[in-house]
Amino acid sequence: MNTTEQTVAKYLLDIEAVKLSPSKPFTWASGWKSPIYCDTRKSLSFPEIRKNMVNSIVTIIKNNFHDVEIIAGVATGGIAWGAIVADILGLPFVYVRSAPKDHGMGNQVEGIVPQGAGMVVIEDLVSTGKSSLEAAKALAKAGAIIKGMVALFSYNFDVSRNAFEMAGVELHTLSNYDTMIDIAKESGYIREEDVDTLRDWRVRPSVWGTEQHN
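^ that's the sequence the OP posted. Answer follows.
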């Protein structure tokens, strides 16, 4: 039987929410070269896939976190997922921006966060972990007790695992880059000779493109 990680990886490949291109890498805003492009928001357009992924998030929360009183979504990709999950669980929902608004009330967190409320944060994608943890920090500053975070997909970088451990934030993901490579190989989406190149990127993402694709 396929695991949730394998099932979600296949979903993302099937609907082209993930594209793997080791020979013609993508360029991130940071300047890093990447053989993968991931847009988990496409999953929202497929009702059955959306339903199954939401149910997986709910299961993770029920199995791993106790005394959860509120759900938060990280803008923008985590907002829809978080709102649906909160609705299923019958819990309040808020969302957090990457930075406070520069007009109006200047809010970074939208919604009501009761002081000391146990919160699970929903994120769509974790790369280095920096922006996700900054969102969690802003929510904690607003008064929440962060129980943990659930993300749809992670690149499984060592830097992100270390960052979450250092911050004391428990992270669970529906799927990840390593599982994605395995599923892509099994399905014939990538060639056998591309596997080592793709795995090397996860280990050394900041230098991968400059070394191999100049």
